[in-house]
Amino acid sequence: VQLQASGGGSVQAGGSLRLSCAASGRAAVTYAVGWFRQAPGKGREFVATITWRSGSRRYADHAKGRFSISRDNTKSEAYLEMNSLKPDDTGVYYCTTGSFNNDFDYTRDYFNAGRYNYWGQGTLVTVSS
To answer: Which residues touch 75 (CB under 8 Å, ≥6 apart)?
Structure first.
């Protein structure tokens, strides 16, 4: 198993959840680790990402101010702290790792799902109103 995501669940609007992602093998030797999500009937969308080495973070507009991504290099793990959850946050959250050439490449293309080559199985987040 390259990526193992956990921490999903059901919460009411305004609640919080913390997702975890454990990377192993080649997935742990990549440039960045991030989260995408997919709501029912919709495409996969970027949520947040962080570089393993420098901890450079990037967020989607819908996540800014509410979500926080972090990583623990000693454990090859990443986390997504989600606060003030809304029903629109409902979906399957996928942990993923991506390979970028350098910081410039990462800054330019961090939101592109095609740049992420390892994907976890997804964890379901359900937010009720």
So the answer is: 22
Summarised one tens digit per residue, pLDDT across range 60-117 is 999 999 999 999 999 999 999 999 999 999 999 999 999 999 999 999 999 999 999 9
Closest CA relative to residue 20, chosen from 88, 111, 120, 128: 120
Closest CA to 69 of 57, 77, 61: 57
Structure tokens at 42: 């919709």
* Residue 106, both tokens: 């990462």
Q: Tell how strand 123-128 and strand 9-12 pair up.
A: parallel
Given the DSSP bridges, would you call strands 91-98 and 32-38 parallel, antiparallel or unpaired?
Answer: antiparallel
**Helix/strand/coil for 104:** helix
- Can you tell me the mean pLDDT for 119-129? 96
What whole-number distance in Å separates Cα of residue 54 and Cα of residue 57?
Answer: 9
